[in-house]
Amino acid sequence: MTPTESRADPLAALRDDLWAAVTGRDEYQAADLVLGALDGGADAESVLLDVLAPLQAKVGAEWAANRLNVAQEHAASAITERVIGALAHHPATRTEPRLGRITVACVDQEWHALPARLLAEVLALRGWQVDFLGAQVPTPHLIAHLHASGSDAVALSSSLPTRLPAAHAAITGCQAIGVPVIVGGAAFGPDGRNARLLGANAWAPDARAAALALSAGLPGPDLAAGRQQIDDLPHLADQEYTLVARAQRDIVRKVLTQLEAALPAMASYTAEQRERTAEDIAHIVEFLAAALYCDDDELFAAFLTWTADILAARRVPARSLRPALDALASELKDFPRSVRMLDRAGRALDAYAPDGTPPGAPA
Amino acid sequence: MASIEGKPVTVAGPAATSDLWTLAPYPVIVADASGIVVQANRAAAALMTGAAAGASLRESVPDWLARAHGEAVAHSRPPAQRSGSHDGEALPPASGPVGARRFEAYPTRGQDGEVVWWLIDGTGRQEAEQALSTERERTGFLVEASNVLLASLNLDRCMAATVRLAADYLADVAIVVAPPARGKLPVAHAVAGQDVVRTLVAADPSSLPGLSEALQGFPPLPSRWIDGALLPDWLLPEGSSGPIGSVVVTSLPGHGVPAGALILLRGTGHAPFSPSEEVFARLFAARAGAALSAARMYSEQRAITQTLMQDLLPPRLQRLNGVEFAGGYRPAETGERVGGDFYDVHPGPSGADASLVVLGDVCGKGLDAAVLTGKIRSTLQALTPMVDDHGRILELLNGSLLNSHHTRFATMVLASVLRKGHEVRLSLTSAGHPPPLVVRLDGSVEEVRTHGSLIGALPSIESHSAQTVLQPGETCLLYTDGFTEARGGPLGSELFGEDRLKRALSDCADLPAEAVVERIQMLASQWLHDGSHDDMALVAIGAPRTTHLSAVDGRTRGRYTV
């Protein structure tokens, strides 16, 4: 083991320098720092997971706090991506594959590829043959790849809870052809409960845990039993998810009309402002649909309090979300699960205090 | 065997009306409390020679019946402490073999503590039950086998699944040998209860009788029994040490595609294969063969597709001669990887020469359109030396398309890209294509004023090029109309449109090229939600923002922009 593993200090310095280089948009400096650390004997996995992963998390947090704009966030990710590419070519990271073959992919429509990329690099360092399929992999591509490659397992990443239905399709698809799936990412919840709900073979909170679980071996899916997708989620029988997801655009339009009638201020909105409002409503409906799919009230409430945080950082009061929730509840009054979730989220929002978690909302 | 007629009969006592039971076709024996036969009917005497009045049960009937009699007697005469009446209680029945058949014996209470045994031949029913349970087990196994075998189109996985199933249900060791690939035989071994082992063996299949024929899938042969001693060493798995008793080689029927051979081994401690087990093994082999041949065909087709597709897939772009290039592609059909949009970057002969960038859109989508993009791309590559004369390139391409049998036309943008100092100089020509956009450092977005005729429709074309210069941090975006014509948005039916594209690009000032591509793709994808769309392609050409010019040819850059 390298000395950097026992002492955290050199990496802390690297973290700070790298943050300065990445936010200063100096990719050469960023690459030099990382390659220099490797030349100096730093452990490649530690650089990936204890320097680059926290860096990326900090980028997200700074965006949420309105200290980085979207463009800066994209730029930082692009530089981090290039730095990982540079690291992967350093002689210190060359590992001959001696373990099995793993496919690493993001769920369809999932754009946050960095966590999956980090995992792919870590697995390669540990001696796996890794096929990294990148961001937003359509499930048919993933399945075709598995048939052709004969991968031993799939590591599937998703950060957005709205992609959970797509994640479920991907998980069951892989399992149906006999390939076990380990999932990770914020979408599956801090305790991985959505991973269990969707029947993943394993869940890992971070790349090290994922690598450990893969080396211990995932239990293969039981093909003989002939499991059906609907068996995982009997609550889908009420079709609320299907109806809400299918009518999403209609619902947005109706809610927008209601809001315009209720809020005179909206009359003076520009077309662009109106579109932003419609996008916000569409986002809320998407999260509601995901919560219905998982029958997870907490998922929806957590999204709204998170949105309230984002709004607060941009000096928009959280209560501005309330009229949209009320309009949505009256639009969906015939859907008991939707009404329950909207009610719960509304209460969480009412109790929201911008400087902390709202009382009554479990962590 | 159980025939009763015509056998000598021992009848105890007169055949009075009340003794009609002595004529019953079912064996009946009456025995007293001390285990001595009081009476036996004809059927009983025919079944058990010696079961006659006065004989001891112990000597004249099978042990299980004698023992059951003892218990029935004990039951009928309980110890004194047992209180109450037990007359109503039924005595427990017994069953067991008599000769080669199986009987059920029902006791009833006779007079003076005698027990009357009524025997029923249950052989047929028991055989039927046995057969039923065997059939159920086999059906269950075949259902399981079908579920498992149909799941994968991967040949290795199918082979592994086949041997695992066979080793668990049919034999102690199962081996699948697939038809040779590049001179070697792919072999999968499974020893019951152990992991499957896959190997590639350079061996002669004719060293095992019947194997060559099975691997060729012709001529058809029945399952072959061979002597365990004939089994070549290369077929013996490492884990199996025990002596081999029986070996059967079955060809896996592949329906026109050779699927391989299934070899089942049983140790000497295990009964050899019965005829019904052999039939069953063939049923399994039929399923396994179908799955293996489907997997083989899929992998062959996939290999062909991959090879043909290779040149149709959008290339991976990277920094070239000091200019950032990034591309993004999303085909119209979710399942497809290619379509009618295309882009390429062709470097000039040296770093001091301009690169030729092309992005275009063939009318139509799917594979048919993709094939034409392949032709256009290779034609354009050949025309790269004319990078300074877009008009000539387009004319030649137009002529070539008109002379081909394709009736489709195409629109495209050509860009000659050259870095001079910090700047990137661009010469752009549109051929019936949406004009390229440039985002300046201050976030303003300009349309590049170039226009021209589309390609492949008319015998003569015209085109007007335009020049622009990118300062560090500025980006030129080439895109296809799949973006501007993307229909969606929060309300579901609006076009993404040029204005929205320009607004989105305006936020991309001073971003690396790949971040521009990622951002635009992400916004368009969110706009579409899950809706249908046309092919969407875009290329970003960026002047690197960095001031570290000294690093351009230095050690650092070369290491991570490979």
From TrEMBL, chain A:
GO BP annotations of the record are: homocysteine metabolic process; tetrahydrofolate metabolic process
Q: Where is the B12-binding domain?
A: 99-225
Q: Is Metal-binding found in the keyword set?
A: yes
Highest taxon, organism lineage: Bacteria
Q: Keyword set for this entry?
A: Cobalt, Metal-binding
Q: Give a Gene Ontology cellular component term annotated to this protein.
A: cytosol
The UniProt entry, under Pfam families, shows: B12-binding, B12-binding_2
- What Gene Ontology molecular-function terms does this entry list? cobalamin binding; metal ion binding; methionine synthase activity
Q: Which PANTHER family match?
A: METHIONINE SYNTHASE
**Name of this chain's protein:** Methanogenic corrinoid protein MtbC1
Q: From which source organism is this entry?
A: Actinacidiphila rubida
UniProtKB/TrEMBL annotation, chain B:
Q: Which domain of life is it from?
A: Bacteria
Q: Which Pfam families match?
A: SpoIIE
Origin organism is: Actinacidiphila rubida
The name this protein goes by in its record: Serine phosphatase
Q: Which residues form the PPM-type phosphatase domain?
A: 320-543
Keywords of this entry: Hydrolase
In terms of SUPFAM superfamilies, this protein maps to: GAF domain-like (SSF55781), PP2C-like (SSF81606)
InterPro entries for this protein: Bact_Sigma-Reg, GAF-like_dom_sf, PPM-type-like_dom_sf, PPM-type_phosphatase-like_dom
Region (Disordered): which ranges? 69-101
